[in-house]
Write a structure and sequence with these properties.
512 residues; mainly alpha; 19 helices; 74% helix; transmembrane helix; membrane
């Protein structure tokens, strides 16, 4: 497949004034939501999901992509200025970024984050353009057994890696799978878990669940947390919003290393960009320790540059994995997969054949969104920081209203509003007791695919379930899953040993 002419056609579609407006709208919304405390791109996409059904698919997904990338661009602003990261993906950036702000380099820290996010996202977009068609051609050889293995891979990797307690991840996953099977079975026609209520015969809408868990439940949690902890003080950015030559040369190697670390995690469903950002930060810290004069701990620019590049490169590759394989690696990607299905589209090889205009316009919009976000964040980062001054009660009340309006608009039923409230409370409880939300969303999105693939594979083999491990692709996926789980278990064991050693060392020092 000659990708350059197809990409040129995609730019021709993406550069229409209508689509440029939606790119700008998505970037503005994504950055704004990323800057605001406790919110993120997953919440923004969940809120926009019921609204965009009135849009043409290309415009809707171009806006979603702008929100997805913009959320990561804005995520680190609050962490740098207030030492309170808005999302888990911005925690690693907070360590050195806030120290830079305290030393009077807040504007340079924001510029470092914006350029790092741009480089990581741009490089990942280039790779996606050339790799996504190859992945789509490869996935055309997938049958029911392969799709089931892919779903199991996503289930196990997401639920075991995104949380310190795999049991909590599995519990969240099974809750999502349980919600997914509610309703009338499409094969047998028998009602399942409906409690004989006609309101549940069509199942529980994914829109209701995503808005309730990722928006309403998150708002309740952040509101309670803000009431307990109070408001933090914000460092006011001042000075030049750009980097000097010396600062640029210092940050450039970290941007490249962070991008290289983040790219592979865009294909492996390991919870999104949290892990690669910490890995990038850890690598830079180890390299800094070899210097004659270590700089970490006093506002090292490399400690901020690497995590920012890693986070956005992961997001860029995640879009390629979503388009080519239909594999979501994060909660936001899972919502976008649900949006594709709402439009009657299935990501994978058929998407490249049946909707090439949408695919290539969307890929072209990635590059446009990177440039727009750099323009919005590099010179105007100090203006975005003023969003932190919005009174929290007004912010939370507005989001709650949009949750209710969006849910009611999709179904037109008061039962959906009651379901929204009930699931929102469940989402709040899960968030409060540290249960991950991504496995729930991924389980609900991929649950029907896993169930259908399992049935089709068993029926094609006359009930012989060995067909699920009978091909090279399923075996390779299960082997890769075993490797991912082994590294995850090893990392936890090493972390626990380190904690025990530190505890023993502290006790010894106290005794002395």
């Amino acid at each position: 497949m000659d990708v350059l002419p197809l990409l040129a056609d995609g730019f021709a579609g993406a550069l229409t004034w209508q689509n440029l407006i939606w790119v700008l709208v998505g970037c503005l919304l994504g950055t704004a939501v990323g800057v605001l405390p406790g919110l993120g791109s997953s919440m923004a996409v969940a809120l926009l999901l019921p609204v965009t059904f009135a849009l043409e698919p290309t415009a809707a997904f171009i806006m979603f992509a702008g929100v997805y990338f913009g959320g990561l661009f804005g995520d680190s602003t609050m962490g740098i200025l207030m030492n309170t990261p808005g999302q888990a993906s911005a925690i690693a950036s907070t360590f050195e970024g806030h120290r830079m702000a305290l030393s009077g380099r807040a504007a340079q820290a924001l510029a470092t984050a914006a350029i790092g996010a741009f480089i990581g996202g741009f490089v990942a977009s280039v790779l996606v353009v050339f790799l996504a068609p190859l992945l789509a051609d490869f996935s055309s050889s997938f049958g029911p057994a392969e799709f089931f293995a892919l779903a199991v891979f996503a289930f196990a990797a997401t639920s075991s890696v995104v949380t310190d307690t795999p049991l909590r991840g599995m519990a969240s996953l099974f809750l999502g799978l349980g919600i997914a099977v509610i309703g009338v079975d499409s094969v047998s026609g028998a009602p399942r878990f409906t409690l004989e209520s006609p309101y549940l015969f069509d199942g529980i809408s994914l829109v209701t669940v995503t808005v309730a868990v990722l928006a309403l439940g998150e708002v309740i949690y952040v509101a309670c947390l803000s009431r307990q902890s109070g408001e933090g003080s914000m460092v006011k950015p001042a000075g030049r919003p750009w980097l000097s030559r010396t600062e640029f040369r210092e940050a450039a190697p970290a941007w490249l290393r962070g991008t290289a670390i983040g790219v592979p995690f865009g294909i492996v469903p390991a919870g999104g960009s949290e892990i690669p950002t910490f890995l990038a930060y850890g690598l830079e810290k180890r390299l800094d320790a070899r210097r004659d004069v270590p700089r970490f701990g006093s506002g090292a620019i490399r400690g901020l540059a690497a995590p920012e590049a890693a986070g956005n490169s992961t997001t860029g590759m995640a879009m390629g994995s979503l388009l080519a394989l239909g594999l979501p690696i994060s909660a936001t990607a899972a919502i976008m997969l649900a949006a594709f299905r709402q439009y009657g589209l299935q990501p994978g090889p058929l998407l490249f054949e049946r909707a090439p205009d949408l695919v290539w316009s969307l890929l072209a919009s990635f590059f446009i969104a990177m440039v727009v976000l750099l323009i919005l964040n590099l010179p105007f980062a100090t203006l975005w920081a003023k969003l932190l001054l919005i009174p929290r009660p007004y912010l939370f009340a507005g989001i709650t209203v949009f949750c209710a309006l969006g849910t009611y608009a999709t179904g037109g039923s008061t039962f959906d509003l009651l379901m929204l409230l009930g699931i929102g409370i469940v989402g709040f409880i899960m968030r409060a007791v540290d249960y991950p939300l991504a496995p729930l969303i991924i389980g609900m999105v991929l649950g029907p695919l896993a169930e259908t693939s399992l049935r089709d594979a068993a029926m094609s083999a006359n009930g012989d379930f060995s067909v699920l491990v009978g091909g090279p692709i399923p075996i390779a996926l299960y082997a890769l899953l075993a490797v991912v789980l082994a590294f995850s278990i090893r990392g936890r064991v090493v972390a626990r040993r380190r904690q025990k050693l530190e505890a023993a060392t502290s006790e010894t020092s106290l005794v002395r």
